[in-house]
Amino acid sequence: MSKAKKAQVVSLFSELEKKTPSVNQSRDRRSDNFSLAKDLLSKYQVVDKNKHISHEFQSFGCHLAEVLADKSHTSLYIKLAKTINRGLLERALSFVSDSNADNKAKLFMWKLEQLKQGNKKI
Q: What is the distance between the alpha carbons of residues 107 and 99, in angstroms, rounded to a whole number?
């Protein structure tokens, strides 16, 4: 390789080095963009949910108890959510949510029994 070509290659590399930051500079620049996880999590409010719910049917049973305003019988609704077809439960719940009944839980159980009887006839 001639001296002129070597000088040209060296000048190209020196121009490239000027344009790209060194390894230490790029590390410093990248570390400035990061923040601590503690700072990120402090921006969000954590909602404590029931830690004893580990299955979806338990969550649906609790949802039924809340909608029907019958939290004292939550375990009953969890058992229903586990053993009875979800479609029946949702149809009974939609029937109750559309009504103006005083005792929605009682109406829910009545409608659920009606739907179960209807399925047996078919």
A: 9
Is 51 part of any domain?
A: no
Identify whether residues 25 and 65 lie together within a single domain: no
Q: What is the pLDDT of residues 48-57, one digit of tens each?
A: 666 678 899 9
pTM of the predicted structure, to 2 decimals:
0.58
* Domain span including residue 24: 3-42
- Give the H/E segment covering residue 44: none
Q: Are 68 and 105 in contact (CB under 8 A)?
A: yes
DSSP state of 2: -
Asked whether the predicted pLDDT for residue 22 surpasses 70, the reply is no
For the segment 88-101, the average pLDDT, to the nearest whole number, is 92
Structure tokens at 38: 């503690």
Helix (H) or strand (E) holding 64: helix 56-67
Separation of CA 5 from chain center: 62
Number of domain units in the chain: 2
> Percentages helix, strand, coil for the chain, rounded to the nearest 5?
75, 0, 25
**Claim to verify: residue 60 and residue 117 sit in the same structural domain:** yes
Question: Residue 86 corresponds to which tokens in the numbers above?
Answer: 């979800």
